[in-house]
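Z., the sequence and structure:
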Amino acid sequence: MKAMVKKIGIMLIAGVLSCVCLVGCGAISIDDIKGDWTADTINGQAVADYAASLGVPTEAAVTNWTIKDDKTLTSSNVTGTIEFDMDLKSNGFELKQKGQSDVFASVKYDKDAGTLTFAMKNSDGSTLTYVMKKGTGNIEAAPADDASEAEEPAEDDSEVAEEEVDDSEDEATEDEAAEDETAEDEESEEEEE
């Protein structure tokens, strides 16, 4: 009987150790996920398509993450930058804003797909599901506004140049008319003599 209890005890201990090892060994490593990540899709749509559905430029919908060795994450978008602490789990990690204990988001890591996926509440109460991929997206506003402003003075300069040309043509015509009058005066003086 003692032998049987001993065998059952050894099997239980082995089972517990196996579970502990699987849980501990199954956690992702920071090396798996560190680096730059950017939003690939939002609610199943490409970022550009999602932005277009809202009537905003693509840059307004882009979110970039930088995951560092010290298990911190920096999230950047057009509205600014937020720092998070990360708590690694077996299938991803949880994000907590610096200095806060509440979980901001739970992120799942898919090693095969090379993606990070998380959901968060939008300001209108709807849920947004993000899929992140390695890389960075452009969060800077497009320079189209600056280019249109730069074109306006150029147009004004061309109008001034045209006016200058017009003025010089008028001056040339006036000079020719003065020469014609001088020539006529000289001819009339010669006839009088």
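The chain has four helices and nine strands. The helical segments are 2-26, 30-33, 47-54, 144-192.

Let me know what you think.
H.
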